[in-house]
Amino acid sequence: MRLILVRHGQTDYNLNRRFQGQREVPLNPTGMDQAERLASRFASLKVDALCSSDLRRCIQTAEVIAKRVNLPVLPDARWRELSFGDWEGMTHAEIQAAAPQWLIRWEADPAGVSPPNGETVTQLAGRAASALDELRRQHAGQTVLLITHGGVIRAVLCHVLGIDLNRHWQFEVGSASVSEISFYGDGAVIQLFNDASHLQEQE
Number of C-alpha atoms within 13 angstroms, CB side, residue 6? Predict the structure, then answer.
């Protein structure tokens, strides 16, 4: 299976560096333009399935692409971003002021420590791995386009490469960026990572 991972377009939370998590935040005008550029990029690509997180910013991105690849959007809650619980909507500075010791613990071990009322990166990776296994069974030999979140893409990369989840932050995943994994039997090869060449005219 060829899996093309796309991070959703920009939101105001991204722009203001707020923890977004599972809040329903829509794309901003820049994000909508990024979605159109993604759609143009994939217009000539043969895609067998178009999957998406069920959160609004991903669905909006996916719906723009769907018009160009002529496929329905298949939403799945397992592709949602990490739940940041009580920290959603806050900036790093605000969290640092409100819960400095919890933040220190979380940053040292996000795989084992969750934000208050949120989830760990291990929990995120578990649900993403479940969804990925299902895709591989259903779409062997096919190309799947997945619209999801930065945290999910980082967790999937760690999962398929056997990397410690506490190192997930070392993968930089930009808004509306494209990454690609090819699966061969039990192995996975990263073919592309964090590519944003389709956005260059915008910068």
Answer: 32
